Amino acid sequence: MKHAIDSEQTPSAPRRWRFRFGLKALFVVVTVLCVWLGYKSARERRAAEMIARHNALLDAIVKNIATPPSNTFYRLNPGSEDELNRRFGRTWANNDFQRTAILRTGSNASVEIQNLTLDISGMGREDVGRQLLSHYSQKLEKLKLKRKISDEVGAHATYIWTSQDNEFTIIVDAHMAADMLTAEVRILLIDSQQLKLW
After folding, report:
1. What confidence score (pLDDT) does residue 98 get?
2. pTM of the full predicted structure?
3. Which of 70, 94, 133, 170 is 20 to 30 Å from the Cα of 125, by its Cα?
């Protein structure tokens, strides 16, 4: 009797709550985690490929602009490679930030125009336009850009290059003056993919 009274008066220790989950919940959590990691990895890989392609194209254009065609010189220097890189939109680092770019598409394509004036008096008179366009468009075929239009009429010549998926359009336009001593070259880079860092 005494034992029964003692047990009634003794408070029981509080029960500790334990987190419990079943095997089904574990599978769901692991699956969601794997899908998220796969999506993140695919997005980072795509961003790195996009930036590498973009950098290769800008490298070719900037190097072609920074150096005038043989037997010519610029009447007005277009700038150093660093200035041209800034002008054409190279504002990110080549390595660490590659994975922090996302692709944003839309109608707001960026357009960069570079106007060049050359003294072509040291160049042969035949096919001057073709020689100029050949210089400014070299290496573009190696980057898998295809020449869409070639228009060469007298003292005026135009080439249009596009990437396979139309992300980039490059227009190189050369016009020789009547005295054939100077030439105006205009390079347009139309970038329909916008790079955005986050």
Report:
1. 43
2. 0.66
3. 170
What's the distance, CA 29 to chain centroid?
A: 36
Which tokens is 90 given?
Answer: 């190279």
Are 145 and 163 in contact, with CB atoms under 8 Å apart? yes
Structure tokens at 191: 């970038």
Instruction: For residues 90 and 126, give the distance between their C-alpha atoms in angstroms, rounded to a whole number.
Output: 36
Cβ–Cβ under 8 Å, residues 181 and 120: yes
Which tokens go with 55? 């950098």
The CA-atom distances, in angstroms, between 7 and each of 1, 4, 12, 15, 95 are: 10, 5, 9, 17, 72
Contacts 24+ apart (CB under 8 A), 161-165: 161/137, 163/53, 163/57
Most confident option among 16-25, 51-60, 69-78, 119-128 = 69-78
Q: Return d(Cα 15, Cα 69) in angstroms, integer.
A: 85
Cα–Cα distance, 101 to 91 (Å, whole number): 12
Q: Which of the 8 DSSP states describes residue 173? A: E
Quick: pLDDT tens for 131-142.
888 888 888 877
Mean pLDDT score, 44-48: 79
Q: How far apart are CA 92 and CA 54, in angstroms?
A: 11
| Domain extents in the chain | 31-197
Give the pair of three-digit tokens for residue 172. Answer: 């190189």
Secondary structure tally for the chain: helices H, strands E: 4, 6
